[in-house]
Amino acid sequence: MKPSTRRLRVVALDADPVPAPAPPVRTALRDALSRCTPPQRVVLALRLVERLSPVEAAATLGIPVQEFDTAYQAVMTDLRHVTTRSRATRRGTSPRAAPELARLRRAS
Fold first, then answer.
1. All domains of the chain, ordered by start, with CATH?
2. SS in 3 state form for 73-87?
3. Does residue 3 sit in helix, strand or coil?
4. How far apart are CA 57 and CA 54, in angstroms?
5. Between 88 and 27, the higher pLDDT residue
6. 21-46 pLDDT, tens per residue?
7. Cα–Cα distance for residue pair 98/74, rounded to 1 Å
8. Residues 57, 63, 68, 69: is their CA dihedral positive or negative?
9. Among 3, 7, 19, 81, whose Cα sits 20 to 30 Å from the Cα of 67?
10. Number of C-beta neighbours around residue 54 at 10 A
11. 9 DSSP 8-state letter
12. Cα–Cα distance measured from residue 67 to residue 52, given in angstroms and rounded to the nearest whole number
């Protein structure tokens, strides 16, 4: 067997590492997520973090599946637009998302 040729990097334990700058897409996504309303965050958390199906997530919120799907698609569309920089300066939600999110606010 050939000995390893990898080099080890020595770092002092008390050294304060300098974080690398975030890629532009990550920064744009973080900014977009910070602008999401609480109902939008709930929709995203149920689908992406908890990994619930649309049926399970809608049941959790006590709303129709179609309403949940519409709200999820609207917030994902908004996030996609931000990350592709086509609407990087846009604030708020799309007009299509507003009615569904208003229903989510009333349901919670």
1. 24-107 (1.10.10)
2. HHHHHHHHHHHCCCC
3. coil
4. 5
5. 27
6. 667 777 888 888 898 999 999 999 99
7. 9
8. positive
9. 81
10. 14
11. P
12. 15
What's the CA gap between 47 and 82, in Å, rounded? 20
Helices 54-61 and 65-83 pack at an angle, to 10 degrees, of 110
State the distance between the two ends of the chain, measured CA to CA, in whole angstroms.
Answer: 63
In angstroms, the CA 97 to CA 68 distance is 11
Q: Whole-model pTM?
A: 0.57
Q: Is residue 62 a contact partner of residue 94, using CB atoms and an 8 Å limit?
A: no
Per-residue pLDDT at 86 = 39
* Closest to 103 (Cα-Cα) out of 44, 62, 56, 75: 62
> What pLDDT digit, counting tens, does each position of 49-82 carry?
999 999 999 999 999 999 999 999 999 998 888 7
Please name the residue ranges forming H helices in 18-96. 24-34, 38-44, 54-61, 65-83
